[in-house]
Amino acid sequence: MNNKKIRVAIIGLGRLGAIHAKNVAEQNNDFDLIAVCAAEEQLKWAKTQLGISATYTDYRKMIDEEQLDAVFIVGPTALHPEMTIYALNAGLHVFCEKPLGVDLQSVNEMVQTIHSHPKQIFQSGFMRRFDSSYLYAKKMVENGEIGKIIYIRGYGIDPLSGIESFTKFATASDSGGIFLDMNIHDIDLVRWFTGHEPVRTWALANNIAAPELEKINEYETGVAQLEMDDGVIATLVGGRHAAHGYQVELEIMGSNGWIRIGEHPEKNLVTLFTNKGVVRPVVQDFVERFSQAFIDEIKAFAANIKNKTQPEATVEDGLKALKIAKACQKSVDTNQIVDIKL
Q: Which among 92, 120, 148 is the end of a domain?
């Protein structure tokens, strides 16, 4: 395996799937992308833009017929468990986008299957752990440069321009709710930075900025307060109404200082001076903000396969993030404080 390319396939060519496909095909010499599975209209893009001739609309058929070492799963969230289970049972390494799934029973079966294949690599798409800014902040926290963590606040707010696309998606599929859909990364980062677990949550949500979402039982803005087992307080803010672009931010308040990551989602170091005032261009979506992190996480996946090492972020991290998100959603639905049982 160390001296040859890893033969991979991708399931799902939506916006994120297309990013992974291009990165695998063009940004990583360890992989050989030999097949893709997606909707018929998306397969045309794979043929013309990536030169992939082996295309499928049935992921099982693709896995059965192609000689693969690994698979990237970027299909609908609800199908992640069954796709992962099938791939692992076929002897493949698996990179699965987050969240692990929507239904806890299916995810638990997925987790059991992962544990029953200890020699196969399973990696979840928590790409923010590979972002240089978060890695730099993590070292600062570990070195004690801001003292003991007191409070953490995580923002995950999509651009207002994406509300129509989300409405279409959520009408056809189960998003899992505002916290699972928007704050799964923030939940993972809270656990990653603190090294502790939340024990209780109280959450609220509304549709003031997008009342049309009520018809599909979705929320536009959600805020959750988490109580950690060491007394640290964390706040999650998820939304879909950032008029300026893509706002993803993490604030860590310590006893001796603060850290803010992404307070201003700046596109570059350019400042524009015009009759409209002084303007700093900002990033417009997650693709732009985390472009390098997406590349680095698949490099890590290749390295894990070749070195036979499991990733730092385990399937348990994904399972706990899912349970926490569901507890936040339950708090909104019941209007009560919810104990978190991990």
A: 120
b/e per residue 182-215 (b: at least 16 CB within 10 A): bbbbbbbbbbbbbeeebbebbbebbeeebeebee
Of 88, 83, 77, give the one whose Cα is nearest residue 58.
83
Tokens representing 13 are 């060519």
**Ranges 3-7, 116-120, 244-248: which has the least confidence:** 3-7
pLDDT digits (tens, 9 = 90+) for 70-120: 999 999 999 999 999 999 999 999 999 999 999 999 999 999 999 999 999
pLDDT of residue 2: 58
Beta bridge partner(s), residue 251: 153, 260
Number of domain units in the chain: 2
Rounded CA gap, 86 and 69, in Å? 14
* Residue 27 CB-density burial (10 A; 0-12 exposed, 13-18 middle, 19+ buried): middle
The enclosing domain of 195 has a CATH number of 3.30.360.10
Structural domain containing residue 55: 6-120
In tens, the pLDDT along 26-71 reads 988 999 999 999 999 999 999 999 999 999 999 999 999 999 999 9
Examine the domain organization and report whether 82 and 160 are in the same domain: no
- 281 within domain boundaries: yes
